[in-house]
Amino acid sequence: MIAIFPLFLIVMSRLSNLLMEYGESHTNKLNKRIHYLCVPAIFWSVCAMLHCIKWNTASPQFLNGIDFPVLLAVLVYYFRLSPALSLGFVLWGGICIFLCVMIEIYALPLIAFAIIIFIIAWIGQFYGHHLEGKKPSFLKDLQFLLIGPAWIMNFIYNKIGFSIESDGLKSNTNP
After folding, report:
1. Which of 16, 45, 117, 166 has the fewest CB atoms nearer than 10 Å to its CB?
2. 36-79: per-residue pLDDT in tens?
3. How far apart are CA 88 and CA 74, in angstroms?
4. Cα dist from 36 to 30, 56, 86, 165, whole Å
5. Structural domain spans, the chain
6. H/E element holding 85?
């Protein structure tokens, strides 16, 4: 048990460092606003594209795309960074899957929506970085593709007065 506590501190320090490093290339006010919109849109569009790849048609509709197992793997990554952070992603992942199922129920072209949103959101992201004058963080390390959503979740948590760190301290990574 004693050996787990220092490991927890290392992981939390790692999360804070990743959020701070990500935040360094997101200081321009307009770029931040663009990211607040585009990062969740990209996350959803990737979930939607994965939802369109069916692997088990005998299961309930919300479980038959590969989005569910991929989201579980992503959830494990976020849980390792911060259990509090992972709770927000349980909710967000559920919303993403729910939206995918609703679009399918109404027989709308989910894959078309997903691709269009994906392209528009990435154009927005690159425009924001053009305004910022800094390269996107993921060009340095692909891990930042998953830190972007964590940065947004950290912003949301800070707005509602929660902390992503289980020790109750606020992260000083102001998104």
Report:
1. 166
2. 999 999 999 999 999 999 876 666 666 778 898 999 999 999 99
3. 12
4. 10, 34, 18, 21
5. 42-160
6. helix 83-105
Contacts of 110 (CB under 8 A, 6+ apart): 48, 51, 52, 100, 103, 104
User: pTM (2 decimals)?
Assistant: 0.81
Helix boundaries (H) for 25-82 = 29-51, 67-81
State both tokens at 11.
């992981």
Contact 82, 13 (CB under 8 A): no
Query: What is the C-alpha separation between 134 and 125, in angstroms, rounded?
Result: 11
Rounded to 5°, the CA angle 118-96-51 comes to 70
Closest to 152 in 3D by CA, of 70, 108, 91, 106:
91
Q: How far is CA 7 from the centre of its chain?
A: 24
Best CA proximity match to 153, nearest among 140, 162, 145, 166: 162
Could you identify the residue written with the tokens 């770029």? 31
Count, residues in the chain: 175
Residue that has been written with the tokens 């259990």 in this structure: 83
- What are 61-73's pLDDT values in tens digits? 667 788 989 999 9
